[in-house]
Amino acid sequence: MLSKVKFSFLIILMTFFAIQTNGQNRKSEWVAGLSLASAKYTDNQGKVLGGSFINQSPRINVSKYLFKNFTADVGLSTAIFDTQKYTTFDAVLRYDFGTSMHNVVPYVVIGGSFISAVKTTPTLNLGAGNTFWIKENYGINVQVLYKYSEDRFESQYSHFYPTIGVVYSFKPRNLNPRLWHMNN
Q: What UniProt keywords are attached to this protein's entry (predicted)?
């Protein structure tokens, strides 16, 4: 149990320093997040897996705005104070409907994960989320993924994966955009 805590702290520390060295450029649009997450299985699946709800804290993610409403996002989380083993590395592509400059940014995602539980299993991820920017650098992010696992992977079932957390933008955002700030 203690080794998982040390491992998670090390991952947080490494991610923080990696973001600091890459994310301080004025032209880059990097965002880092720290979230609460959980994996939610059906009750029948939970009987097989040893539980239908797996808490994961913290979930660490880093996002980079790419182009034309698309953002790449990677995340890592692991079950720390849970009896079940569940570590996930997620990579998704977000589409924000042209609202990336707004204070409320809804989006849809598609991507994949590698889940390390009984065995390492790939999943296809589909989902939606929203970021509410409350300060120039800080926002609240809510997201729900559906992680689809093929039937041939007996060690993992398809499940929902909701997250809620705080995000930090390395480039301050204008919370009161003017007409001349819009890129139409």
A: Signal
User: How many residues are recorded in the chain?
Assistant: 184
Encoded amino acid at 126, one letter: L
Q: Is residue 62 within 8 Å of residue 15, measured between CB atoms?
A: yes
| Distances, alpha carbon 131 to alpha carbons 20, 75, 128, 172, in Å | 22, 16, 11, 15
Closest listed residue to residue 59, CA positions, set 136, 178, 165: 165
Task: Find the Cα–Cα–Cα–Cα dihedral 154, 159, 165, 170, rounded to 10°.
Answer: 70
- Tell me if residue 14 falls in helix, strand or coil: helix
What Rg, from alpha-carbon coordinates, does the chain have?
17
Give φ, ψ of 183 to 5 degrees: -105, 90
